[in-house]
Specification:
By secondary structure, the protein is mostly helical. It folds into 2 domains: 278 residues, no CATH class; 158 residues, no CATH class. 72% of the residues lie in helices and 3% in strands. The protein contains 22 helices and 6 strands. The strands form 3 sheets. Strands 1-2 form a two-stranded parallel sheet. A two-stranded antiparallel sheet has the order 3-4. Strands 5-6 form a two-stranded antiparallel sheet. Strand 5 and strand 6 form a beta hairpin. The longest helix has 27 residues. It is globular, with a radius of gyration of 23 Å. The C terminus is likely disordered.
Length: 473
């Protein structure tokens, strides 16, 4: 179908996701439409990829029009339901806020919007000009997409041993054969509508994912209570990150999608904790499900919401005692592993081997140097590293004083759990070698960037506005 098919393949899931989510919100709250458009695109495209995977496993020819027809039906259903509501149109609260802004605020808004437009236009040109370039893209994610696009079938990928033993000549193999299929299906989806493999077409979903991420952060910030200018400033902070821009310009990796979904899950989770918004709670669950389907790390990052949930539910004193006990246990374990203490029946704690888990060890303290360089010296993260240090310090002091709302405790627990997870990964496992390579550590840090910037925005507003949350439970 050519480029018209590509437009249809990308627009239909986007529209379907947006319309289904529109059923959740009837009130004209600030940021509603940016949220619906952003989450609608990401969840809609993932839904199309999952549908393509199901139909492919059923043996359907991937070049058939069945997936598009099914998505068209799924688009028509919410459109019909919304039409029956016959609700009167409301004036946009975002538009009202923009009209009430002063002259300098309007000028700043125009400048930021112009910068974001130029930024996205530059990334669009990179996506248009560059072939499939990143390593994992053309060895795993894009390779599988191209095989499926060339053959028109969802050919399975297996281990090298099974591939060698296969007599039917229907299996394929790659080193990362066990990686989840979703990202490869996302890349294959528009190329199937195009009619043949095209690397620019395969990379277009990454550009739109970046646009959705910017819209989602803006919408959730406005819904939190930020002014249009404040929300745009934090969108600028996110979209100016060189590491994020790299993952858009060199499209094909799964990390941008995982960062977007994890960020969306965190934003909606905090809204749910703060205001008991059931719609936001549903969005958080949907985004978490998306994380599980992207990469293996997604399952680990979703677990971070467990301590966050405990932090907002447990009484402050009990939470403090539990945190102190866990901290003391961690320090004792760190000392034991560092000194190689012998314990009965276990041998030295210098290296701990657990079934189905990586070997744990204490890496040399020189690992701190490349991580510190990445965060504070090199140009990968701009000023984000410095802002996070200030935010953690302020949040810990506030938590010790006991002047925190449930959402603040939940957010701090999530951030500290994320930092602890990265520390254990980079210093207690064989992944410590990644710190000297740089690319893997920065890719993992990218997963948390959108969530952390939204957290910075909530802290900024908390320092400038009186608390309006319900009393701590």
């Amino acid at each position: 179908m050519g480029w018209w098919g590509v437009a249809l393949a990308l627009a239909l899931p986007w529209l379907a996701g947006t319309l289904w989510l529109r059923l959740l919100w009837s009130d004209p709250a600030p940021g509603r439409w940016p949220i619906l458009i952003a989450y609608g695109y990401v969840l809609g495209v993932l839904g199309a990829a999952w549908l393509l995977g199901i139909l492919g496993r059923l043996g359907l020819d991937l070049y058939s029009h069945a997936p598009l027809l099914l998505i068209a039906i799924l688009t028509a259903i919410p459109a019909r339901l919304l039409q029956r509501r016959h609700r009167p149109a409301h004036h946009s609260l975002d538009h009202r806020a923009a009209e009430q802004a002063g002259l300098w605020e309007r000028a700043a808004l125009i400048l930021l919007l112009a910068w974001l437009g130029v930024r996205l236009a530059g990334l669009a040109l990179e996506v248009w000009w560059h072939p499939l370039f990143p390593w994992d893209a053309w060895t795993t994610w894009g390779l599988r997409a191209r095989v499926w696009s060339e053959l028109g079938q969802l050919i399975p990928f297996s281990s090298p041993q099974d591939w060698l033993a296969d007599t039917t000549e229907t299996l394929q193999t790659i080193p990362a054969w066990s990686y989840p299929l979703t990202i490869s299906l996302v890349a294959a989806w528009p190329t199937l509508a195009f009619g043949q493999w095209n690397e620019t077409v395969a990379n277009l979903p990454w550009l739109l994912c970046a646009l959705a991420l910017a819209l989602g952060l803006y919408g959730q910030s406005r819904r939190w209570g930020a002014s249009p200018l404040t929300a745009l400033v934090f969108v600028w902070l996110l979209m100016s990150l060189p590491m994020l821009g790299t993952h858009v310009a060199l499209a094909g990796y799964a990390d941008l999608w995982l960062a977007t979904l994890l960020g969306f899950a965190f934003m909606s989770f905090l809204h749910w904790v703060r205001a008991a918004d059931e719609g936001q709670g549903l969005l958080a669950l949907l985004a978490m499900m998306g994380c599980l389907s992207i990469k293996e790390e997604g399952a680990i990052w979703v677990v971070l919401f467990v301590p966050a949930m405990l932090a907002c539910r447990l009484p402050g004193r009990l939470l403090g005692q539990l945190a102190a006990a866990l901290g003391l246990l961690g320090i004792m374990l760190w000392i034991a592993i560092s000194l190689g203490i012998e314990i009965p029946l276990s041998g030295s704690l210098e290296r701990i081997a657990l079934t189905h888990l990586p070997n744990f060890r204490i890496a040399d303290l020189s690992n701190w140097r490349p991580i510190a360089h990445d965060l504070f010296l090199y140009g990968n993260w701009h000023i984000l590293g410095y802002l996070l240090v200030l935010a953690l310090g302020w949040s810990l002091v506030t938590a010790v004083r006991g002047h925190t709302a449930p959402w603040q405790r939940a957010a701090l627990a999530w951030v500290l759990s994320a930092v602890l997870s990265l520390y254990v990964l980079f210093f207690w496992t064989d992944a410590y070698r990644w710190t000297f390579q740089g690319h893997s550590t920065n890719r993992l840090m990218l997963h948390f960037a959108p969530a952390l910037i939204f957290w910075l925005m909530t802290l900024w507003l908390a320092t400038r506005q009186p608390p309006r949350d319900p009393p701590s439970r």
